[in-house]
Amino acid sequence: MTKILLTASAAAIAVAMSAGSAAARDQIQIAGSSTVLPYASIVAEAFGENFEYPTPVVESGGSGAGRKKLCEGVGENTIDIANSSSRIKQSDIDLCASNGVTEIQEVRIGYDGIVFASDINGEAFAFTPADWHAALAAKVVKDGQVVDNPNKTWADVNPDLPAQDILAFIPGTKHGTREVFDEKVILDGCEENGTMEALMAANGGDEDAAEDACTTLRTDGVSVDIDGDYTETLARIDANKNGIGVFGLSFYQNNTDKLQVATMNSVVPSVESIASGEYPVSRPLYFYVKNAHLDVIPGMQQYVEFFVSDEIAGPDGPLAAYGLVSDPELAKTQEMVANRTPMGPLK
């Protein structure tokens, strides 16, 4: 196995951490995405049961927050792994580098879908991205003019939808799910319903300004950011039966006694439709590894390899049983993990 050499600063910290076993941290610390949280928790529990290392500590907080914590520096007061439901940004990599975190592994664990679910006893919905943009965007096109969004019910958006008051519970901006929602639902919908073209014209052809306007959402109470995890979204729907929530597929699949799922572009979200690429709102899931800690925190390399093993992340493993769509290129990820291959700059 080829091993990446630690930087001088990381090596110094490693020596300090190993100088006295009483002072060194012996438990892997993980934080980040609430979407990846249940998968990482399953792996952590299994790891603790099958290896002679303490069960890793897995916390939530959001993808962006987890990546930021990963980049705080090297040493036992910083986390080892950040879970993320959106890909790391170059700004994260730059922050890491500025704090001495110079080698990071990007580990793709599989795929998930973003689904739109409502109370199981409520109306059924068949959405398009254009519907969601017209429902939640701050600015929409009416009679050829860009105006403040006047839509009150889903039927105002699309006469084929129920005449139910618009109320959407969406992930807050610190969640990776929100990034995918903005890009694959709101922005795509803005392009589909013609608002992007009108906003381009209104902004003198400035595409960046038009995209910012496309993804700026209403602030009149119909679009509600949820900063907690999916359990909070579920609780909001339970208290507000007209509400529609944005969830990860696996969370919905584990709450089908409470929720019904909407189609998107006439496709029912499922493991099969996500694996085939037919379902339009899917995304890869990741975790990011601080290589400088691999030979410092006991069991860390073993945990990473265990997570992406066929037995855990493969199509017949416990993560697939919970709802993860297994990565068809899992073997490539396993090789990268075995070689501790750090990621380079983003293109």
Structure description:
α5 (129-136) crosses α7 and α8 crosses α9. It is built from 16 helices and 13 strands. It has helices at residues 8-19, 37-50, 63-70, 90-98, 129-136, 154-157, 176-192, 195-202, 207-214, 230-239, 249-253, 271-275, 300-307, 310-313, 318-322, 330-339, and strands at 29-32, 57-61, 81-84, 104-119, 126-127, 139-142, 145-148, 168-171, 223-226, 244-248, 259-261, 263-264, 282-290. Residues 1-23 have low confidence and may be disordered. The strands form 3 sheets. Strands 1, 2, 3, 4, 8, 9, 10, 11 and 13 form a 9-stranded mixed beta sheet that branches. The protein has a two-stranded parallel ribbon with strand order 5-12. Strands 6-7 form a two-stranded antiparallel ribbon. β6 and β7 form a beta hairpin.
Topology diagram in text:
Layout: H1 8-19, E1 29-32, H2 37-50, E2 57-61, H3 63-70, E3 81-84, H4 90-98, E4 104-119, E5 126-127, H5 129-136, E6 139-142, E7 145-148, H6 154-157, E8 168-171, H7 176-192, H8 195-202, H9 207-214, E9 223-226, H10 230-239, E10 244-248, H11 249-253, E11 259-261, E12 263-264, H12 271-275, E13 282-290, H13 300-307, H14 310-313, H15 318-322, H16 330-339
Parallel strand pairs: 1-2, 1-3, 5-12, 8-9, 8-10
Antiparallel strand pairs: 3-13, 4-10, 4-11, 4-13, 6-7
